[in-house]
């Protein structure tokens, strides 16, 4: 039976309560939670995030986790530790990646320029069942680039999991069109008056 999308994206209370209480919204577009997620890291919360991601990934029977540096690595490593799976991350502009390498260029709004993602081909074995894990799903360009590289390696993307999904940026649509289920621990519906409206989470709680 196909997994229920809503159970894959149920709010994870230890994370969502912190977003509701502590997030800063910049330009009605960017959720700043860099004091616990992607600059300063709260290790206990990251460990809990990893365990929850591992639980939600389990039904897809992945044998490898793939992410992109930099901010994808902490949650992907936490999930990999919890699920006891190997982890591969796409490097950005690394001239030392051994060839043959898989590469994709993606625009990076946070860096204001294009980024080149690079993965050594031998780290993506043909036939592998791959779970993509990243911190944010916004426009989905990073996840799509990773999915393309994984498919080019003749491996299968069985699920894509994110700590935070911004629903109004529609990044899930191209993933679902490729048949890739989406996991999210927190979903931002929109921003209102500098506050994130979180799916399945009453305002003010
Ligand atoms: P995508 O992540 O779905 O591909 O969407 P998009 O191209 O719009 O965003 C790319 C970069 O912007 C990613 O980081 C992503 O994590 C970050 N980003 C998007 N929305 C938010 C947000 O609301 N808050 C924060 N903090 N970051 C956001 P990146 O450029 O790949 O950087 P990094 O992982 O090297 O830090």
Main features:
205 residues; alpha/beta; Rossmann fold; eight-stranded mixed beta sheet; two-stranded antiparallel sheet; 10 strands; 33% strand; globular; binds guanosine-5',3'-tetraphosphate
Can you describe what's shown?
Strand 9 and strand 10 form a beta hairpin. This protein has one domain (5-87, 128-198): Rossmann fold. The N and C termini lie far apart (34 Å). The mean pLDDT is 94. The protein has 205 residues and is α/β, with parallel strands linked by helices. Helix 3 (43-57) packs across helix 4 (73-83). The protein has helices spanning 5-8, 13-22, 43-57, 73-83, 141-152, 172-177, and strands at residues 24-26, 30-32, 64-68, 87-92, 101-108, 113-120, 129-137, 156-166, 182-192, 195-198. The strands form 2 sheets. An 8-stranded mixed sheet has the order 5-6-4-3-7-8-9-10, with helices on both faces. Strands 1-2 form a two-stranded antiparallel sheet. The protein has 6 helices and 10 strands, in the order H-H-E-E-H-E-H-E-E-E-E-H-E-H-E-E. The radius of gyration is 16 Å and the shape is globular. Bound molecules: guanosine-5',3'-tetraphosphate. Guanosine-5',3'-tetraphosphate binds at residues 30-32, 38, 70-72, 108-111, 135-143, 166, 171.
């Amino acid at each position: 039976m196909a997994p229920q999308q809503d159970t894959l994206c149920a709010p994870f209370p230890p994370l969502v309560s912190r977003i509701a209480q502590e997030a800063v919204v910049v330009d009605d577009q960017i959720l700043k939670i860099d004091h616990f997620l992607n600059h300063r890291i709260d290790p206990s919360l990251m460990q809990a995030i990893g365990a929850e991601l591992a639980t939600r990934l389990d039904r897809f029977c992945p044998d490898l986790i793939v992410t992109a540096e930099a901010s994808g690595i902490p949650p992907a490593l936490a999930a990999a530790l919890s699920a006891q799976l190997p982890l591969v991350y796409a490097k950005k502009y690394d001239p030392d990646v051994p060839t043959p390498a898989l590469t994709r260029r993606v625009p990076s709004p946070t860096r204001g320029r294009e980024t080149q993602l690079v993965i050594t081909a031998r780290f993506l074995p043909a036939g592998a069942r791959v779970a993509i894990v990243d911190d944010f799903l916004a426009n989905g360009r990073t996840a799509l680039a990773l999915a393309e590289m994984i498919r080019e390696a003749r491996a299968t993307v069985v699920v894509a999991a994110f700590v935070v999904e911004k629903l109004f940026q529609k990044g899930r649509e191209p993933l679902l069109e490729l048949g890739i289920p989406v996991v999210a621990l927190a979903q931002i519906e929109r921003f209102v008056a500098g506050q994130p409206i979180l799916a399945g989470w009453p305002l003010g709680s």
